[in-house]
Amino acid sequence: MKNIDSRTHVRGESVYLDDIPLIRGTLFGAAFGSPVAHGKIKNLDLSAAQAVPGVVKLFTYKDVTGENQIGGIVPDEPLLAEHHVHYCGMPIVFVVAESEDIARSAVKKITVDIEPLPIITDPREAQAKGELIVRPRTHKLGDTATAWAQCSHIFEGRTETNGQEHLYIETQGAYAVPQENNGIKLYSSTQGPTAVQRAVSRSSGLAMHKIDVDVTRLGGGFGGKEDQANMWAALCALAAHVLRQPVKYSLHRMEDMAMTGKRHPYSSDFKIGLDDHLKIIAYEATFYQNAGAAADLSPAVLERTLFHCTNTYFIPNVTATAYSCRTHLPPNTAFRGFGGPQGMFVIEAAIAKAAEELGIEATVIQGANLNKTGDEFAYGQKAVSEAHACWDKAIELYRLEEIRARIDQFNSVNLLTKKAFSLMPICFGISFTNTRMNQARALVHVYTDGSVGVSTGAVEMGQGVNTKMLQVAAQTLAIRPERVKLQTTSTYRIANTSPSAASATADLNGKAVELACTEIRERLKVVAAGELQTTAEAITIQDEWVYVNGNRTDWDWNRLVMEAFTKRVSLSEHAHYATPAIHYDASREKGHPFAYHVYGTAIVEVTVDCLRGTYEMESVKVVHDFGVSMNPLIDRGQIEGGIVQGLGWMTMEEVVYDKEGRLRSNALSTYKVPDLYSVPKEIAIEPLKTEQDNLAIFRSKAVGEPPLMYGIGAYFALRKAIRAFNPTAIIPYDAPMTPEKVLMALYPPRATPGSVRSAHEQTEVTARLAVNS
Ligand code: MTE
Ligand code: HPA
Ligand code: MOS
To answer: What would the pLDDT profile of 183-207 be if each residue is shown by its tens digit?
Structure first.
């Protein structure tokens, strides 16, 4: 089945925040953000801005009618700065005016006098100074301290992974419309309608039942709108509440880039020990997460880094510690993978380092350590593993032997162009790591004309969840998909929702839809049984017809629905689903946090131009554990998109803050994202069909986040290609691997006294370059 939004997307008819018709009298907001990253506000001069014709009101923290607080996990984030600022762009004033232009020109007239305070941008420096968002967390399995003695090979190193801008095509924004009796209706580009409702309730002082957050769809979220849509909604709601007029704010791209958080950069240390058979015996890792100036979702992201710190490998002795470090950057937040990719990069770097030092292919170590069913993760859950199945199938199907031989041959005759491949196996846990969040509800109405309206807590953000919800309803009720309509996501219809996140949206909301539709169907069967003088057990509904003991009757869907209505049988149902069997004890760091894991293996092939340092992504060939895909078209789209987004993170997207904490990569001229030309020339996706009785909706495993991590393979393939040209290249484990970094690694600077490179190594490099040229 096609994505139900395809048609309106292509015709430009799909409704996003900016497509909602404005009510007469609507005012426009714009935020004035701190010009410095850390300091004490000495004086704020609003007079010039106030004097701009058309300016209605300037809101500061003093105007907040409720609590000046929007922190979700930790209450450490004011809606508007009070006496201190903690990052560049931190909102200090919210200007409301008669037009967008007036609001923005008034923002430019605000001046603020800030006494500067020391600025920290480096997470290790923050950790050394005790600037932690939450207590450090440690996952432990076995005992690494004694395990080192069993290791024949021990390697240590340090890695860096940079941030990533979400770059949803629709920027952040909200539109708040006052209602009678102090109610507020909010249109918000949010993944978390309830998160917005809570933030608005808290900052306005209104009870949650007065706040309806209504979402049609987002032009992408990627985690960036799981928590960080709250700020703009709360500002608009505050202004609308005070002024009793509708207020809208949709951010300009550069405002969005400068003011919102991104994927967390991490700096990490690793130590890995292997025995003579290349079994990984022990692994230690320390993660320094750059959380930015407030907690936001950082503690949860930190937790997932630990959950995924051994990727898909079984390692009997693990000690992993993670610090969430407070710096003076915009609070970093959820981003596809939610800390998992950052953890997985480090173990892959450790394996790559071991392979490079031992002079073997990393695949030998990877393949020797894949987990098996029954193996324990450091957090206590036992694997139900598809790791070997995916790995073996990828090697066989895509003929790794031939790839290897072809690349060796190519490299032996091409001096200035080098190719390389890498394998990237993945394992990603499905469920919110916070057990309580794994619940969802659905409200299904069958109308008397036989059409069906479905409301859930799921937010459509391009991932196709509405299409999947529609499929669940149509299949469960045994009616044509055209009969079903997905309604907007509204906190008045579905309460206390979890954000659409953790790849779990279709599972959680889909199970609730299935429960609601099953309930209605069973009720209709009873009605049919009464009419047809048989038992409900004898009744089935197939393709909109009622069957008795397998024989079609003259009762169709419409007749049945109308009869149920006449009999005063409810044609509506509200159902609740909570993922069974999951639990986690954070004090022991043990439990069973995930409903299941998603596995896969990618083979990534790259070509490096060794004169320029530029490169091409030749192919990404994947065997992916789908379970049984309920919508192969949508799931393929998720995998392709995830791969490209992962490649972008690993190769070209470079978030740059200067020492003053100012974002330098603040526009698409300075921040490079993958375009059509950087998409791999070939993406092959082969399903691994698994029929486990898992907790996925219709056994169709969650697919949103896991494929992003295939992109990590590109980083390691690029390292190999560089080393094919310059075998002694010393390449820090520092992502993204931009063309600039590739060039520097291909042609290292000449050895100077005190340089780490030995004279012998340098001679070799120089000799090789001479040969090549
Ligand atoms: N795909 C599109 N097109 N747009 C998005 O914003 N977000 C990703 C992923 N795929 C996203 C996307 C993220 S971060 C998550 S967690 C999942 O979709 C959320 O949706 P799901 O739970 O329905 O998979
Ligand atoms: N993923 C996304 N969002 C979350 C999670 C998670 O695992 N846990 C809490 N919020
Ligand atoms: Mo996705 S990072 O869980 O929104």
So the answer is: 999 999 999 999 999 999 999 999 9
